[in-house]
Design brief:
By secondary structure, the protein is an all-alpha fold. The chain has eight helices and no strands. About 75% of the residues lie in helices and about 0% in strands.
């Protein structure tokens, strides 16, 4: 299988989970696919297999310098694995945001902008949710 095909499969594999989080947050399918951790197991296995397939990795690759980290990302399989890393963690954060809103009984409509931001810009989506959640909870449950 080509690297491009691997990338497309990985990239598109999270779309159903994101759609379930956005459009059917309380559905049985969302619970089974996303909140059960099943999708994360699959992404984790793909991540691990790609890294093992790329072993021992590019020469001079290490985590102790910018140049060393740059060398890590010179191999297509490692780049795909790194992309899967982003996909998995951003989706994990998106799932947590949905569960967090449900736990605090906040309307799902409030969640949607933060989900989009999390999908596209990871940490900024989480930051937007934490700020919005703080404002909503303060408004609904002001401290006396």
């Amino acid at each position: 299988m080509s690297n491009e095909t691997l990338f497309l499969i990985a990239n598109n594999s999270v779309i159903p989970a994101w759609l379930l989080l956005a459009l059917a947050p309380r559905s049985l399918w969302t619970a089974r696919l996303v909140h059960s951790g099943a999708v994360f197991v699959l992404l984790g296995l793909a991540y691990g297999l790609l890294l093992l397939a790329d072993s021992p990795g590019p020469a001079n690759a290490n985590f102790s310098s910018l140049e060393g980290v740059t060398q890590i990302f010179t191999s297509p399989k490692t780049i795909i694995a790194a992309w899967i890393h982003y996909l998995a963690f951003d989706l994990f954060v998106g799932a947590w945001i949905v569960r967090d809103a449900q736990r605090h009984q906040l309307r799902h409509l409030y969640v949607l902008p933060s989900l989009v931001l999390t999908l596209m810009l990871g940490p900024l989506g989480l930051l937007s949710w934490l700020g919005l959640r703080w404002a909503l909870l303060k408004r609904h449950h002001p401290i006396a």
